[in-house]
């Protein structure tokens, strides 16, 4: 079978592998769609602390059950999405049901082979049934959608709040959709990419081009000089780590979603004078994952606009090249 593997920094390739054979407790999945995410880019650049070549990448994917033992929550022929977190189950966080902060958290597609493959074996308890009304393409975006659900859930966002999202990447845009669903009032998104700003605008958000505009100045103007109620930092650079503090209201909440490639300096003194709260987020809980599936099933949100490319796995290198430039791609899916 064909797989898409990380070979060495800045090199990915399609390879031939033996068909995997499910062990006890696993199912054989024929992958349908799999998305490239920022974490895959980190691995691609050789910057991920754990991922090692020749890893089969891919932790955002949907598929069909080909082989499964016994009477399970999914059956042969079912469409599924994979919940890629593997928690230890025994650490203190796991004992509290907070699997996303498990002290030994591992991921399918990062710590073990993932979904850039025609077939993959997956522990049965990591399979989620895709309702009939959710497409396999949408299925491949449930994982990042669950990140957005978790992020908004962890925030103190109230109905009518003014929300600022710094960064219109897939995660920033999905947070925008979930914040809107949660009743946010004004939602303003900044970016430095014309293409991403255009998509954000099409999705109905107010946008700020941070290349030509002073973001803090605009937010202050929109809020009678007070600032936003909640700011989501989803760009992951020093400039936005500064802006998140400048454009927040007194006693407002900053939610840091970004995984910073370079540790930013945070102006804590500027925060304490205005009693600003800082919240961080990681992944999602099982119920966030369920919520993401339900939102799509009930057609409460539209995520198709995020897909900029659908490529065959043969074009894996092209996909990673495109992802290097935010003006060329947003969400790239491989169709297996
Ligand atoms: N907390 C979690 O569990 C979790 C999960 C997934 C991703 N992340 C992190 O969230 C962040 C966003 O993920 P993504 O996939 O959307 O990444 P992305 O790189 O596609 O998005 C970042 C966006 O920020 C924009 N940007 C750059 N400079 C900017 C500036 N000065 N002002 C405003 N925007 C600017 C980029 O153009 C890009 O569109 C990343 O840091 C990623 O690692 C966190
Ligand atoms: Zn991801
Ligand atoms: Zn654990």
Automatic annotation (TrEMBL):
It holds the Pfam family ADH_zinc_N. PANTHER family: L-THREONINE 3-DEHYDROGENASE. Residues 4-334 form the Enoyl reductase (ER) domain. The keyword Zinc applies. It comes from the Bacteria. InterPro entries: ADH-like_C, ADH-like_N, ER, GroES-like_sf, NAD(P)-bd_dom_sf, Zn_alcohol_dh. Keywords: Metal-binding, Oxidoreductase, Zinc. The keyword Metal-binding applies. This is Alcohol dehydrogenase catalytic domain-containing protein.
């Amino acid at each position: 079978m064909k797989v898409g593997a990380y070979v060495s920094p800045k090199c990915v390739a399609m390879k031939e592998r033996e068909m995997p054979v499910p062990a006890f407790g696993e199912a054989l999945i024929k992958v349908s769609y799999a998305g490239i995410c920022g974490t895959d880019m980190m691995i691609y650049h050789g910057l991920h602390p754990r991922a090692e070549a020749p890893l089969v990448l891919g932790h955002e994917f949907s598929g069909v059950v080909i082989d499964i033992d016994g009477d399970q929550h999914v059956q042969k022929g079912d469409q599924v999405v994979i919940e890629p977190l593997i928690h230890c189950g025994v650490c203190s966080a796991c004992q509290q049901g907070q699997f996303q902060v498990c002290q030994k958290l591992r991921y399918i597609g990062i710590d073990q082979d993932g979904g850039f493959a025609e077939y993959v074996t997956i522990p049965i308890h990591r399979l989620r049934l895709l309702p009939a009304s959710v497409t396999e393409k949408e299925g491949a975006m449930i994982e990042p959608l669950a990140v957005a659900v978790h992020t908004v859930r962890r925030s103190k966002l109230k109905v009518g709040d003014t929300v600022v999202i710094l960064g219109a990447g897939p995660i920033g845009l999905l947070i925008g959709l979930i914040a809107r669903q949660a009743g946010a009032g004004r939602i303003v998104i900044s970016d430095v990419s014309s293409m991403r700003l255009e998509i954000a605008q099409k999705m109905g958000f107010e946008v700020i081009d941070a290349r030509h505009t002073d973001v803090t100045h605009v937010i202050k103007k929109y809020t009678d000089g007070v600032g936003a109620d909640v700011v989501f930092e989803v760009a992951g650079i020093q400039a936005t780590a500064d802006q998140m503090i400048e454009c927040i209201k007194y006693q407002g909440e900053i939610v840091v979603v970004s995984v910073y490639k370079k540790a930013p300096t945070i102006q804590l003194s500027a925060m304490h004078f205005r009693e600003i709260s800082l919240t961080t987020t990681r992944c999602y809980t099982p119920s966030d994952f369920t919520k993401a599936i339900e939102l799509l099933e009930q057609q409460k949100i539209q995520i198709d606009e995020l897909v900029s490319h659908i490529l065959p796995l043969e074009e894996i290198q092209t996909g990673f090249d495109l992802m290097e430039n935010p003006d060329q791609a947003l969400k790239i899916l491989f169709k297996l």
